[in-house]
Amino acid sequence: MANAPRVFTVSELIRQVNLDLFRYNDVSVEGEVTNYTRSAAGHSYFSIKDSRSQVKVVLFAMNARFIRFKIENGLQLIVRGRLAIYEQNGSFQLNAVAVEPAGLGALQLAFEQLKKRLADEGLFDAARKKPLPMFPQRIAVITSPAGAAIRDILHVLGRRFAGLSLQIYPVRVQGPTAAREIATALKHLSRWELHDVILICRGGGSLEDLWPFNEEILARAVAASTIPTISGVGHETDFTICDLVADLRAPTPSAAAEIVIRAKSDVCTHVDYSVRRIRQVVEGRVRNYRHELRHLASSDRLGILPRRIAAQRERLQRRRMSLYRLLEGRARLLRRRLEAANEPLARFPRRVDTLRHRLQGVAATLDAVSPLSVLSRGYAIAFSRKKKRRTPILDSAAVSVGDPIEVQLKRGQLLCTVDGKSMGVESVWPSVNREPEL
After folding, report:
1. For the sheet containing 381-384, what is the strand order?
2. Is the pTM of this model over 0.85?
């Protein structure tokens, strides 16, 4: 009699099929995302399909946390994982370990998704951006203190307007924690309200290197800043989310330094130009009035000429005085702004001298009360070493003959043993009633 075919239980059959599918433990499948859902635990469930078929995909949270872009229905993805049968319902699925967009880099896709979402919220609108001050006196720079960007900024600011108050807030500008560090720096500076403008700078690099400036946490921190911000990240061809949200985008860190402050020479040139322009306007109007007077003098209506001349002279005088007052007021305003810009420089040396004198006084006080100062005059400190404890000896009754003690000198220590002791100074001082010995 022939052997009867083996009868499997459902669990045995699924387990056997999973063993047979083990050769598909690392396959890549391309398809369009459909039926996407995400559980509270962070697991993603969806299907990928083509024109004829579809397969279920499970992306567990431990693998999903490495994905920078957002999975959405309609995306064309390449999913890598292993094929398996889910034992509880016998469904065929692909357990994914990695996904990436088909034809477009994951970082680029994440950039475009975040850019669209923030644009829809209005974070890029020009109406919400704050104007930059004309003469900022206190500037904060958020960047790496070891990078080339800070050297370029210091060089440009020193050349254009030496002596500015500049504070560097050191952060990482690359790596997984960089975006959070920069966002924290922005929150602190906004809360302190000590600066007129904030520069966020970094040198050039690849898309991966500049990625911290494309993260949502940094974009929202820039948008929430109460202080005007200038973003100078990468080279001229590099664009980041930070550039789009900031109040002003500079193509490079050096350009950000040039934008933040106008050179003294530029201010003086502007004042000189304004003076020349006003003088030209005044002289041009005077010439026109003179020409009109000569025309009136040669006309037949000479009877009204004196009155018209007097009226024109009075009008000319009023306009001349108005123009000169305008010029004087403008020059006085610019002079006050220049003096206000130089005032922090005068306060800074005085502040440094005050702190230096205070430090010297504190150092002298510490030196006077230092135990080392007492030891340098020939004194010593004795310590008891009983029971593994080191305590100062204040009374001879605290030790016994033969006990080990430690003597601290100004330089070095002595380990000693008590050979004898007395009860104190009063015990050996001569008594007033004692008869002298013969």
Report:
1. 391-392, 381-384, 404-408, 413-417
2. no
